[in-house]
Amino acid sequence: MGIMGRAFTLIELLIVIAIIAILAAVVLSVLGQAEERGRSAQCLSNLRQWGIAFRMYADDNDDFLPRRGQGVQTLQEIDRPTDWFNALPAYLSLPSFQTMISNNILPAAHSHSIFICPTAQNPGSNYFLPYGMNMNLCPWNLTVPTQYFQVNQPACVVAMADAPGPWASTYPSKHAWSIVARHNGQINLLFLAGEAQSFSGSYVGCGTGDPGLPMVRWLTGTASDPSAVNYQ
């Protein structure tokens, strides 16, 4: 029988099927990574908008920053007007988080909302905030809110980060409120000066604690710093 008339053997067919399966897996992996890069880019855009709101809020309030909301407790109090999720949305022409809850307009996972990281999954918490403010920045245990000018090196101090969802604030920690590297092992951070960047989760302490990096700071140089050890 000539070459053109020869049938494939079973082994040859299995090899072809295996090669096709491998190629399909590679293609799907590449497409998945490309989609995640797009989601991460949208997440960074969201954070930059929050950064603009931080600066506008300080400009309108004698340089004071919004409060970070509750700390190691999961979010329960949503009616304080100076907590970031209520104080900042107005500067982006959006309703406060409290107003949305009152109107039964819950920011849902994967919805097109500045409150929502596109990659974040809702773990089933009462209130879902996949971005959290730096737990050590303007906490409620300070009688007077922190002023922007009091923060040392605001270009290096984290203002907000990818967070697990049930908390209003976050911190590099071994506890459940830790910052989250949800973008293929990367985490997106907003710095107080307004820049948003992506970092390796292991580099900035996801799930372990603050490594004390000079250019990615969670300590602020203010009276809140001594309490930060309780967040790790």
Essential attributes:
232 residues; 5-stranded mixed sheet; 4 helices; elongated
Structure description:
There is one protein chain. The chain is elongated, with a radius of gyration of 22 Å. It has one domain. With 232 residues, the chain is an alpha+beta fold. The mean pLDDT is 92. The termini are far apart. Strands 3-1-2-4-5 form a five-stranded mixed β-sheet. It contains four helices and five strands; from the N terminus they run αααβββββα.
Topology:
Elements: H1 10-60, H2 84-87, H3 97-102, E1 129-134, E2 158-165, E3 169-170, E4 186-191, E5 196-200, H4 201-204
Parallel strand pairs: 1-3
Antiparallel strand pairs: 1-2, 2-4, 4-5
In brief:
The protein is an alpha+beta fold. It has one domain (8-231). 28% of the residues lie in helices and 12% in strands.
